[in-house]
């Protein structure tokens, strides 16, 4: 009987110790969580890091260079009448002086006019005089036989700057007359860029 009583006393003692330890552990967890929350509120490093990522991304997008365009003629607002068979006259009949302004100066006009005159004369050597070294000397202007060209107006003049690179675009209206006298009106764009010697050259005709 005495041994049985000792056994119950020990059981009660162990149960009390286990309960105390369990209560202490729970209290420590709560204190740890509270402390963690308090530290996070006092020092919101993770939140700031997340916000910084967003701001950094926005800053990078804002730092991207944008295209800058200076326009002297807007094709969308300019009305040009087509040339008819009766009004066709081979040659370069554009009044360049009426368009001369800002970047569309004597240098660009001289090189453009010379190239157009070479097309009218079907002179491939003269045509190549003001071409950029990257431009192929072959041109559709010399693919057709027994045709005549009439360059009669400009519909676009603009300077485009992108990433520090400058390009001048000139839209030219022309009429082509075939050997049977049929006239077709069309347009193309001259693209001028500077070469290594800092000279304006024709980089493309499209």
Structure, explained:
- By secondary structure, the protein is α+β, with helices and mostly antiparallel strands.
- 39% of the residues lie in helices and 26% in strands.
- The chain is built from 4 helices and 6 strands; from the N terminus they run ααββααββββ.
- The chain has helices at residues 2-42, 45-63, 106-121, 124-127; strands spanning 68-73, 91-92, 148-162, 165-177, 183-194, 200-205.
- Strands 1, 2, 3, 4, 5 and 6 form a 6-stranded mixed sheet that branches.
- The chain is globular and about 50 Å long.
- The model is unreliable at 1-62 (pLDDT under 50).
Distance between the termini: 114 Å
Query: What portion of residues belong to β-strands?
Result: 25-35%
Q: H/E element string? A: HHEEHHEEEE
Judged by helices, strands and strand pairing, the structural class is: alpha+beta
Count the beta strands: 6
Radius of gyration over alpha carbons?
40 Å
Q: In terms of quaternary structure, what is this?
A: single chain
Helix content: 25-40%
Number of helices: 4
Q: What general outline do the C-alpha atoms trace?
A: globular
Q: Return the average pLDDT rounded to an integer.
A: 78
Residue runs with pLDDT of under 50 for 5 or more positions: 1-62
